[in-house]
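User: Can you predict the 3D structure for this chain?
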Amino acid sequence: MASDDLTAFEAWAGALLARLDPAARRRIARDIGMGLRRRQQQRIRAQRNPDGSPFEARKQRLRGKRGAIRRRAMFQKLATARFLRVRTLADAVAVGFFGRVARIARVHQYGLQDQVAPGGPRVRYPTRRLVGFSPGDSAFVRDALLRHLAGGDA
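Assistant: Here is the predicted structure, written as structure tokens:
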């Protein structure tokens, strides 16, 4: 979603939400945040970036694959509700990684350099967008907001 589209959407939703009391706004934000988290979890489990492209595969070892970890899909544990959190306020909602696990997510989100293991070599990881706003997310937020405003709880 383009930045100007997101700004227009934010202005539209903000005008509607401004008429509600803070408790109702917080309840709507929580429900929308939970739905967005479910969508992010499904996308991470499907190994897809927000634009629909697949995550870049793990680098192959010279000596071959060893162990179950390298055979499993990446970030399966990070996609759980324990790590992928929803934070809400009366005027905002945030879906993302918080605390210590946020460092790992940030390295992959932006393709940064990090140590493979304590005292190990430093490696530049490929960019894998774990959290992001996909084209279908704006429609989801709009529909959930309209359901709440119409009185049919999402």
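The mean pLDDT is 85. The radius of gyration is 18 Å.
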